[in-house]
Amino acid sequence: MIALSATALGVALTGALSTLRGIGAPLAPRRLLIVYALIAGLAALPLVIAFVPSLMPTYMAATLPVLLALPSALYFYVEGLTSPQHTGRPTLLHGILPLMGSLITFGYWCLPIAAQQTMFMNGSLPPGLFPATLAVSTFVLIAIWCLASPAYLLIVLKRLARFRARLRDLYSNVETRELRWVEWLMAFLVVLWVAVAATLLSDNFGPGLLVPDEWIMALTVCLLAFLFCTSPIRAVALEPDLAIDSAPDKPGEVVTEKYSRSSLTADHAQRLAERIETAMREHHLYLDANLSLSKLSRHVASAPNLVSQTLNERLGATFFDYVARWRVEAAEPLILRGQQSILTIALDVGFNSKSTFYKAFKKQMGMTPTAYRDARSEGQIS
Length: 382
What we know:
The protein is an all-alpha fold. 69% of the residues lie in helices and 0% in strands. The chain is built from 17 helices and no strands. The protein starts with a helix and ends in a 5-residue tail after the last helix. Residues 246-256 have low confidence and may be disordered.
């Protein structure tokens, strides 16, 4: 247990130092440092028990607000990654649980040393109304934390869905910006949450320990190692004039309210749509793997929001899907010719990965590139 605790602290410290080196993008790194600090604070408890047992009651009481603050800290880190231009501060609502935990911790610290030792070292409840109130309040907050943690998970997943929907309005290739690693982080957290929640609830309301402490600490080490290896130091590079938070709540919910204040007329939209089509058909802009809404807007001499509105309303597609459609059409004769590999064709027409090309081709053609070529050669489709 001591070795696992020391390993967790070492990984957290390494991650924090690495984050400090990338502090040039201030929002996300600051929040990641808080996440590392909170997890390290929880992971250090076995070391405190082993080497400074006299501080154990004081330190154990302090872990309550740390535990309660972790879900919101992770959420605000993901928010910092998905909204690098966001300048707002966390609302008071997210701080209620940590604040209540801090008040209870202060109450524990006000108890006599003997009472603290009785509660935290012996696991017994000393006489008096105040210790009983603290114990009941702790149980209630732990139960609320067990409910709040999955709620934060759902909020994070919803935010990621909005973020990725907005990316498809801005970029023709989105793989390096989609933050897919966050979903794996959430999976790690779900496993760890189930273990911790089951143990806490069982210790306080049930038969006792369900998951060995060593297992929980090992999961914590794995979580920290995954966070260190996968989490970016800087937020995702986005178009400076188009905020992610302006995206609709649902990926398919696009037009009416989003463009309710737009000055784009029907005639202007028609002319702009024709310029966009010309840019693709004659100038082959889709072949640029780094093509973005901003680049297309400069090419057709129009504002990005008007181009986006034209794509959604007039051409019926997000920027990503519209460009992918041109790329798939360009790839079709190359696929039928069969002289190049699928990866080579994908890169030649503007995709930056084979998997993205497969998804786009199957979405448009209803089958994979290889199956499409075989079906055409056998005369199954014309």
